[in-house]
Protein 1
Amino acid sequence: MTVKIGFVGVGGIAKRHLTNCKNRPDVKMVGHCDVNLERAKQIAAEFGGNAYHDFRELYDKEKPDAIVICTPPFAHGDIEIEASRRGIHFFVEKPVAVNMATANRVAEAVADTGIIAQVGYMFRRAEGPKKARELLQGRAIAMVQEHYYMPGLPPPPWWPKMALGGGQLIEQATHMLDLGRFLAGDVKTVAGCTTRVRDWNPPPGYKPPGPGLLKYAEGFEIPDTTALVMQYESGALGTLSCSMVPQAAWDNGFKVVADGLLVTLEGANARWVGDVKGEQPSSKDWPNFVLNDFIEAVKTGGQPTVPYTEGVKSLAISIAGYESVRRGGAPVKLSDLIA
């Protein structure tokens, strides 16, 4: 079976997925939609298919079997709901939304129509985290420690706007929060604290240095440093610390303390010590596995390996963190947020 695939949003992370689809003989790319029509035309010329400015027009004219959604966080909602209503399966990049109302609406549409909806939490499908999950099964988990440090601000203009991107906690650290759920189970409560420790207003005469992360931005609205304390349903505790205050390098880390075992994840590679010792690297092409799983599910009618409901639960941790800040640091129950 050849799967007809369309893309909605063709900037940023979409290039990886476009290249992956191009290399699969069982995929035909039929259309590409973007708010920047010229960019959509360039992608169509390179990867095949037609260019569109309106995703509904792409759906109705091309009638794809599935779509890959790589839009900024604020654009989610109608794209997924309209696909669901037409019986079009979708793969959506994280985060699934910037608020729970949108995520819950999409989840309802997915449940009502029964389409296959997969979320791009790529770490779940890599060999290292999968081996770590296997080793942790049946063990009492005590602590999940996560950190996500970025050496600056990503350049898209929506990034420093809370209503558009949700800040680092929603847009980037969600990978760590989802990985915690994958390894230790669902989160029960979240308590959060945020701060902004530096002046992000551009100094006189400042010009961005070119491609790469920024040290300053007009209209910076988001926290630059965040900390969460989580209680898992199992009774385990977890912490997340994240910051985008400019420093030397990216540093993303993950540890799990369990009865008889200490697991460390560095990127998608795992190592462990305790009553067993070892390591599990991930394949070079591990970031493609989550989309490949989706394509296979569309071909066979199988189940998604990272269903949309998982994206909703992981988003809820970030939303609960911000809600806790609004409540002066009081813990927030995730069950109050998920429909």
Note: The mean pLDDT is 97.
Protein 2
Amino acid sequence: MPTAATVDAVRTPLGRRNGKLAGTHPVDLAAHTLRALVERTGIDPELVEDVIMGCVMQVGDQGLNIARNAALAAGFPENTVGTTVDRQCGSSQQAAHFAAQGVMAGAYDVVIAAGVENMSRVPMGASITPGSMPFGPEMLGRYPNLVPQGISAELIAEKWNISREDNDRFSVQSHHRAATARSEGRFEREIVPIEVTTDDGKLLMTEDEGIRPDSSMETLAKLKPAFKPDGVITAGNSSQITDGSAAMLVMSEEKAAEIGLTPRARFHSFALAGVDPVMMLTGPIPRTRCWSGRG
């Protein structure tokens, strides 16, 4: 069985909601990373047998198979195919799984796995049309108490006794670590700078917008709970609304050797897990156990 390897991986800087990337169409955002893979590796786009792209909100600017549209926008040959997958928060990870599994099965020699989301232009929940209900009466009969992610996070904090201070402390540590990594240049190889247009004119965006090096327990303590009046989840300790795209070039080790490219990583195993949809954010717990062989 062929071994699936990652040859290179790139991403745009990550933009904040209504930040520097808000004016960039998601097709162009994704195309930027596809072009970067070709330029950095020197691979002939004709060799790319599929572009598999994760995208949750496949509507509006991100509708009608954004993977195929991005490949064409990137200048790939017209015979390049693409498909867009949705596994919610794990969509681009699933794109990587499908790409690697296709290589391991012998269906692909060369494939690109990618992901894109411009949440400023296509906000969370945009794919739910007015008056519709995506769950259906039978699912709602089984789970009558479905909640949004913010409330799910509050339920998790309550179940495991995670305090407001615990959440804030983790957030501060995360921002400080990210700021340190940025100052040490640890993101420079993966980030592909992108030209953006702002109120101040055109500029080259080279860094993530969401890192807050001055974050502190004192500043976070001033924020009100975002989802529940007496809750512990705030805008300061929640995940950011983000605009961005990423792509990775996946191929068999044999093909990499044939065209003179050096693999950077190999796919060894894959894991998925489903959980109670009310506690939707706990999925990584059983998935990690499955991956490590303990599940």
Note: The chain has nine helices and nine strands.
Protein 3
Amino acid sequence: MVELIRDNPIAAVIVLCEFGLWALLGAGLVSRYLLRLRRLGVVLLAAIPLTDVVLVVAVLLDLHRGAATTAIHGLAGVYLGFSVAFGPTMVRWADRHFAYRFAGGPKPEKPAKGSMEKYKAVWQEWYRVVNAAAIASVTLLGLIFTVAGPEQEGTLYWWIGRVWLVVGIWFLAGPAFEDRPSRSERDAPQQVTR
């Protein structure tokens, strides 16, 4: 792992961006709930997308200077897509759990199995995966058409195909076989498991 990061600066940037995401999230929640510095907490949480900007700029500069395109460059585009699509949901999840654990907030509720809420949640998660794949694809195509040379395009196109393969697998593992509640179950008051 150390050799990969040393030999490929984009791998190091991905690791640093992931570390930065979690550091900003942790610092934002601690500031908000434990230190009672709400504004600072909001600023730190709002800064999380800057890690994505840093990653995109690093990949653009690396490809622009003529670096050989590797799987890491494609992975950076995929990372960006999933970070943008799942980031806000992850921050809300962490915020609810942190508030419950450390600030007396309400206990986060989980949709009951077989409920309409659970059914909707499974589909919403898959839509986020589709969104992530779309963002990753647009990012990779942007790299292909702006900075990648002909010898660099193949690897980036390969990643576009793989990200859509993930969408298909996620569909089969999730919403494809999720039972839709019957009409009577949909109309009944929903119970939430804790």
Note: The CA atoms of residues 137 and 160 lie 5 Å apart.
Protein 4
Amino acid sequence: MNWMTIPSMVGPMVGPIVGGVLTSYVSWRWIFYLNIPIGLIGGVLALRLFENFRAPAPTRFDFVGFVIAGLGLFLLELAIENVGRPMLPPALGIVFFPLAAITLLTYWHHARHSNSPVLDLNLLGIKTFHIGTMTGGLCRMGLDATPFLLPLLFQVGFGLSAVQAGLLSFSSTFGAMVVRSVSRPVLRSLGFRRTLVWGALLSGLVTASYALLSADTPAWLIAFAVLIGGCIRSIQYLALNTISYADVPSAMLSRATSVGGVVQQLARGFGVAIGAALLAVIAGSEQVTTRDFQIVLLLVGMIPLISALGFLRLSPSDGAEVSGHRAAGTALKAG
């Protein structure tokens, strides 16, 4: 998992700095234009380097389920986004919540009667996958809202430039990459249960502590606080990604990664949408202030704290074959 995730951190590490430079000296539109050459290069490399692997007996694509699930998730995302930045009349936006619920329930009914649903919800019957994916998704909402809120706090609240905000945000991903070297000993020593519970608690507390920052806070102290948050999030992400697939049979890994990947992307989107919605509701029609950000950070910090209750459902031995952790009872029996 380290080999998979560390390279993917290069983008988030340099992204805030490159984005700040482009915004300050070229145009904010180039943040999006830049994806065109990067996407083309990625496509060429994929064609050259990836083996064209095919499943021995590919199943028929669940197009009906794809449409239903996609529509339900779109309506839910749109409903949340509309709270923070009204694109539609508020009354119409609220209607999307029950519509999304009905559509997703329709997909749940469809998945139960489909031989190969696009998102196999039966996988949620696996305890570690359920907790790592669903409870982990809740935790990710709080974790992923923070990188969205901090650059805004630095620019709108503290009056820093986009480049300065990017340099401060950079320390988060730098810390995330560095701490990966100690993630394996941490999991072996604590196990998944304690790692995830303490990770959720510390993540919530660190996010809430950002409410203490102000425009007068020294830059080195802000960077250090952001670095600590990145370190904690990194270990939490690694533990969530690993425990989710620890007990999934190899024949079902493909379906599991589909469900897990969708939940992760939704958690990221919902986290940003919830952060933006809270900021819009608290600020109201007035100009957004540092005080508004502080309140939102305190509220967002509560999300990982709530998820800690779900991680308590794990037993000390869950995922032990992957982490190498030996619970106290197991160690005594072995002795």
Note: Residues 162-209 form the longest helix (48 residues).
